[in-house]
Amino acid sequence: MHPVIQRSFGGLNRSYYVRNFLFGLIFPAMIYFVLSHGKGPAPFGVVAFVTCFSVLNTFLYPYSRFVYESIVDYIVGRNVFLVNAIMMLFVKIMTMLICWYLAVLIAPVGLAYLLFRNRHGAAA
Questions:
Q1: Which residues contact 1 (CB under 8 A, 6 or more apart)?
Q2: 107: which residues sit within 8 A by CB, 6+ positions away?
Q3: Are 114 and 7 in contact (CB under 8 A)?
Q4: Residue 6's pLDDT band (cuts 50, 70, 90)
Q5: Tell me, what's the pLDDT at 3?
Q6: Per-residue pLDDT tens digits for 7-38
Q7: Mean pLDDT over all residues of the chain?
Q8: CA pair distance 96, 58, nearest whole angstrom
Q9: d(Cα 113, Cα 37) in Å, to the nearest integer?
Q10: For the chain, which residues make up each domain, given as ranges?
């Protein structure tokens, strides 16, 4: 495998990637449920676009989530907030949805950071 691909796409811990990948499967499952329970069959173009969009975003979601969690960790640090569990779950699901939906835009930032971190980490 090319070193650039290995340093960026292989930069996340495998268990972290798998866990977030599995959580990322929630959204395409909901989309396909909605598409399959409509009044009629969806046009082929819509199904093809949704399939490509879902596959790409699901594979990039762990990198998008990595960016989000890195930013939140930087801002919040080791502080602990006590909040209502229902509100926290709602916020968690919404941030997951945003990270999944915008994975194509957010993930390149995480991939670039992983490439930079692993390139300099290997040299040190």
A1: 10
A2: 60, 61, 63, 64, 67
A3: yes
A4: low
A5: 59
A6: 566 678 889 999 999 999 999 999 999 888 87
A7: 87
A8: 11
A9: 40
A10: 14-118
